[in-house]
Amino acid sequence: MEDTTMLEGSQGLFQELSFTIIPNGISEERLKKIETDIVAANGTIIPFDAAKGRIERLEEIVYIVSETSDFPDYYRALDLLIHVVKPSWVESSIQAGKTKNPRTYSPDPALFMNEVVVCCGAIPTGDKEAIEGGVLAMGGQIAPVLSKTVTHLIALDLDDPRCQLAISKRLQAMMVLPHWFDDCLKVGRRISERPYTLPDPEILLVEAGAIPPTRTSPLIRDATTPDPINDPLPPTPTVFSETPRAIKTFAGKQVKLGEDLNISSKLRGIITGMIKAGGGDVTSKIVDADIYICNYREGSDYIRASQDEKDVGNLGWLYYLITHGVWTNPMRRMMHYPRPRDGIPGFNKYKISISSYTGEARVYLENLVKATGAEFTKTFKQDNTHLIAAHKNSEKCEAAAEWGVNVVNHLWLEDSYAKCKEMPLTDNRYTYFPPRTNLGEVLGQTEIDRDAMEKIFFPESHQPAKAIKAVSKVDAVPASSVPINKAVVDPVTRSPPAADKAKRTKSTGNMQTPLPPRHLDGKENQTPGSRGAKDRALSKLHDAAPDIARFEKEMKRKGGVIHGGRRRTEDETEDGSKKAKDRDSITSKRSIDEVEEDEDTEDEATEVPAKNKRAKKDKLTSIKFRMLVSKDERWTGNQEKESKDKARLRELGLFITDDFKKVDLLCAPHPVRTKKFIAAVACAPTIVSTSYLDYALKNNKLPPAEKHLLKARDFEEGSGFRLVEAIERAEQNKHRLLKEWTIFCTQNVGGGFDTYKDIIEANGGKCAKWTGKTTAITASKRSLNTSGAEVSQNQEEDEGDVLYLISDPDKKEFANWAKFRELAKKHDMIPRIVSKDWIVFVTMAQYVHWDPKWELSEEAVKASM
């Protein structure tokens, strides 16, 4: 009775809307129910032709219903701005009596929160807004009240009233800490909730034991190698039967086998027979082919097939199709797409090992390393350049820290291979390891970057005729599955915003807010061709734009969603707590972090509008200066004032940042020995006093920096160098003061090892943790540049053969010192054990200098006791 009422209330809901249902993964009973519900709501169903496996009348369709994005016409549908939704969208829309936002029901793998319905408990307002905005932007849903549909309840402990309610009602929602969502954003994947689950989350346990292994990711099964060793298994008798339920892989398809496959005539005959058994055929002409199989991304056939948007895969992909009898996108899995013959530029000089991956995961990563052109080593040695780890709780990771080897997660390798360029290790996403999490669980989720392939391997020399078909359709149909996973892509680059002058047109569906461009720079899940459709997509509207804008702002916040416990951070929007009551009077309040990227782009801020009102867009002033502030007490204990002041300064073009690697102005009440101040000197910033901020906030404009220079006479007299001269040297050095230096530092040094590691790396050097294990460390002399080409104050006093160890004057370190001297002797170098003052002077003065007062010795320590 309830279902009948529901259908009656939804009559006409899908009027003038056409649907196609992809049957794979949907049970027969559910398929019939979906068809009945659509017809009852006056929708039109265009049958899916299972015999062909493709959607012939794609331009006539408004919605495609599918459990996954892995069907042949998926990217073509996106180019035509057709909604692709899961079956649950139909059910939810009918139940609600209105069409739901299709984005939150998209099968796009980039929207990794699309199965998540979040309800927040009693957590701070800023964190709640960040979580809600991020979940919506990543394809999830928000429930304002606790209900049976909620999958995740975000709370701090079980004393939360909503947790108590969930327990009393026996709801199935997982109760997790906010840290879970924060870590999902940091790695750009949905990770396991296990370590974050209340009441006793593992991440808060002091002794939680070893991190448990994870099951093999289903995305790499039968996709671990581009060169299958065994012959393909014959398909089961039912795979190519006449049932309308299956996508027939080869039915009506012409397959061309590339010359670079180097397979025997016998194997070629076996493969040909299997293709014909599936209703296809083998051709020798690339023009007639629908599928092209090759080993490498080269040759006229590869280029022609790719430009014509044919399916291009390798032998591993072909075997997968034969074995499973179900079509899959060759770009979906790394090892199913042809390799670059010479690997990725720059990778040939790397030696890479892996840690904490087993079974198929290990085989997959080993083959991926080899495909990049790097050398894979089964054992980890000191001459390795990179260690790819599933987590950092391993002996290899400890050794890597001692040897100064880069420890990264597999996302760095996958993204580099997907884009065919080395991704920067400065991106924290590649060096972050969520606590108590085995990242092997998200292995294989990265897809080949379609735009990168086109740009590098088959630049488009002509526009396919079918792209022209998109012109008329694009103004009538909105996009739904718009992947915007900024965490997955390179966060250092930012694509231009949608054209602010684009005209809005009426269209079928619910479109009220600006649609971000699907072609984000470096984005996965894109297809070459159909440029007419893509250009128009830049100006389309989309329901989720306000949530996306909020999410992108929060993604740039230092420390993520949670920071300093669970307090609101300095980067939170000024009006975060007042948004509900001030929505009708939105002015120019904006987050200070909206434009933390390239200042040459004109960013736009999208405020959350009042209900049923069009979103308002204001152009944000471009960044004039990036300022790092150290030891200024004006905002201590007053986060609200801090947020407001920083927002005002951002309006003036002054961005307050904690990133000491990119600083124009360095502000402090006086010269200080903080990590941020010392490391920022390497940027050659103008050093100003806090009066600069006083003036800017009082007069609402930025003063000339030269009128507020920091006065440091007492400091300079005591230090033996002038700050203005140090800045001049820093400008000459260009972050290369300690280039080619490896400086060792004891792990218990005052101030923390990471402090000196950051300072040294900011000046181009490498810092290695010293624990006294001489067999696990290598050292080499520095080559002295005497040509004068790059010689400035930074190198004139470099002795080249001196090995430095930063330590504290503590007798507990005597054993480490002795071992360090052994290391230096072993490599024919002079050991020099120094206090922290040495590195502080060198990096602040910006030139290499030595004074015996900095040297530590056992005799001096004993004498001072």
TrEMBL record:
InterPro entries for this protein: BRCT_dom, BRCT_dom_sf, CellCycle_DNARepair_Reg
Regions of compositional bias (Acidic residues) in chain numbering: 594-606
Biased composition (Basic and acidic residues): 532-557, 567-593
Chain residue ranges for the region called Disordered: 216-238, 491-616
A GO CC term attached to the entry: nucleus
SUPFAM superfamilies assigned to the protein according to its UniProt record, in alphabetical order: BRCT domain
Pfam families per record: PTCB-BRCT (PF12738), RTT107_BRCT_5 (PF16770)
GO BP term, example: DNA double-strand break attachment to nuclear envelope
Domain BRCT, residue spans: 9-107, 107-198, 347-430
Protein name: Regulator of Ty1 Transposition
Organism of origin: Neocucurbitaria cava
